[in-house]
Design a protein that fits this description.
Blueprint lengths: L24 E7 L5 H12 L2 E4 H5 L10 H8 L3 H23 L4 E4 L4 H13 L3 E8 L3 H9 L5 H12 L9 E4 L4 H15 L1
Parallel strand pairs: 1-3, 1-4, 2-3, 4-5
Helix pairs in contact: 1-8, 3-7, 4-5, 6-7
Length: about 200
Amino acid sequence: MHLTDQQGHDPEPNRPAPAHLSGRVVVLVSGLPGVGKSVLVDALAPRLGAAVASRDAARIGSTPGGPRGLTEAIAWRFAHRRLASAQRRAGLILEATVAQHLDAGRSVVVEAVAEPALRQRLRVVALDHDAGFVQLECVLSNRAEHYRRLGLRTEGERFWRTVVASIESGYQVPAECLSLDTSATPNEVADWALSLILSAR
C-alpha cells in the first residue's frame, strides 16, 4: 500500500505500509458539502498509506487542482438529465479508479456524497478484490460552524445552504456507517477516523 496523489502518482514508492494495517481497505468518506470531507481525506490518506479517489475529480476529468465541491453543487442543484448522466459516468470512473488502486495493492480513501447505489457498488468492488470496506460519515454538529464553512466557498453561504438543503431532504446514511464529528482539528479527526477504521477491521 503506497501513498498516491489524486492523479495516481506515487511520490514515495518505497514508503512502507503501516504495520498495524493488514490487507487492503476501501474507506468511503461521505457527508454533506462543507462538513470537512476533503480535509479529512487529505489528513487520513497518509496515515493509511492509501491512494485518494474523489467523485468530483472523476466528474471533472481528474483535472489537477480542480474544485471538489463546485461540480457537486451544480449536479445536485440543477439535476436534469444531462447532469444526472454525468454523475453516473463519474460514479463509473470512480469505481474503475478504486479497482485500479486495489489491483496495484493499494488501499483507497474515497471522497463522495454517496447515494445508496454508489455505496453498494463500491462495496462490491472491495469484496471482489478481497479488500475491507469501511464507511465514515462526516457530520458537523455545530450548524453555525457549518454555515461559516459554507460561506468561505466561492459561491457563498446562501448558494451552498440551498444545495445542502436539497441534498439533506433525500440523504440516506446506512446504519453501518461510522459517524465522525468534524468540528475538531483535522489531525484530531483523522486520528479518530484511523482508530475507528482499525477497530472496524
